Predict the structure.
Amino acid sequence: MLFSPRRYRLAAALATVATLGACAQTTTAPEPSPPPPSAAAPVPAAAPAAVPTAATRTDTRGDAGKNKDTPEDDGPARPSAMTAQLFYEVLVGELNATGGDPGEGFEMLLDAARRTREPALFRRAAEVAVLARSPEAALTVARLWREALPDAREARRLELQVLIVLGRLAESEAPLRDELAATPVVEHPALMAMIVRHYSRAADKKLAASVIERALADDLRNPATAALAWTTVGRLRMVAGDAGGALDAARKGQAADPDADAPVGLALDLMETQPEAEAVVKRYLASPKALPEARIAYARALAVDRRYADASAELQALTQAKPELPEPWLLLGSLQAQARQDTQAEASAKRYLELATQQSDADDRRRGQTQAYILLAQLAERRKDYADAEQWLTRIEGGDQLPAARSQRALLLARQGKLAEARELIRGLPARNEAERRQKLLAEVQLLRDAKDYQSAYDMLARASTAAPEDGDLLYDQAMMAEKLNRLDDMERLLRRLIQLKPDNQNAYNALGYAWADRNMRLPEARELILKAVALAPDDPFIADSLGWVEYRLGNVAEARRILEAAYGKRPDPEIGAHLGEVLWASGQRDRAVKVWKEAVLADAENETLQETLKRLRVKL
């Protein structure tokens, strides 16, 4: 039989009172008090059977309001001040908090907490305040809790979090200092991570960084804690947009302890915007005490910066020094594959698979093995060994990468002329939500595009776009299929519709302008559209490529070469290389043009624009 709403609230209140282990046992003589109303009289009599004893209080209390960063022991079990009257007040407070009058319930619970000095009651009052979305009330609880129990770390951390939410950062400095002083040095890494996590959410991030620096003054002077403290200051400075100040903090942290890895982690995060941070990383890696994980992270950062040769050198050094580590082999294999060093890439990926069983984390091991299988499949596909490629892909068993693996298998089938079978494989993928249904659609469209069945791809996208007329991505993809079919009126109509829906969509302007420039038509209008795209995305090398190409079509060869050189330097993509090579060829720099085209062929020998350019100019590399 279902509880009535009132009976349900009563049951919930009893359950909460039962978990308030601090209120479990009366060991002092009850104060004289009037009996509760008769309607509630049976409750105190029935409750003791469900209430734990004081001796088991710390094991049975609820988790409500408990700080998750550091589990806290409230100390040894102690006699409770619970009386019949107090028990009744807590019960009524709970009933109000969960039902009729939350404000009154909160006041009753807080009053009971103050009188008993019981952490469980303070915790429950804090939970009620949080559920009521009242940070001021939560702050009141935290401060009364600290007043009653000055050493209660949970109360101090609650106060810190609430002060940050309220934006009262200056007031948080004193409790933060207290928390730092009360935390053993061995626990400082976890505490510093908590500080960064919480203060990064502050609205005034510059003030947060300065408050942290003042609160950490003692740690910054202590040789045992200075490296970690400076790293914490640096991370808050980075969040506040002060990259230079963050780099200065990383340097000071390393100066305090050259073997500490925390400043190196900060320097790695700064490398993209502060190239000087690399010196901090290199100094650390020169030490025999440097952790292999730091060198792996450095190699990743180099790869992100497209310094592939440098990244490979770091990984090769690590695989020689620590050949038993699995992860560097997989990363090295990926870079070797990108550099078209297929034999070495295959050997590295297989070496990773031999070592992967040593990885203790099952999820990391499964993800790594999946990446290795996909890499080996791609290498087999590159040498046209489709059977071997499929054999690697069939080893992938579930996980987030399974849809990607099946899509890869479908592409393999399509490239063997088995388009219908490939489409069935995609259609057999699970689609539990709209996002997964969309992925299936786009995967099938990609199959049709690769098979040059542009009409079927166009029809699929047209049907999807009719069902979702405001979906700009579908409109864009449909327009690209119209361009492939040379249905330029449809392409323009679709892209104009996209521009109307999303006036800041740089890809729509760029696609329309480039389509005209590539066909050497409506060039002034094409240039105007591409310039609009440049204004919206000035750092996009592909849009810069379009601008260089339209300048070339307009006869502005020197300007075209300047723009394309910069775009290719930023992103050495085969299509940009094809355009740059043609402009260099037209400028008489034929040796340089051939060099660029050879680089582009190494990156993607089957690129359509590259192949069309070489064929049209009758160039054999």
Notes: The longest helix spans residues 362-382. The CA atoms of residues 19 and 61 lie 5 Å apart.
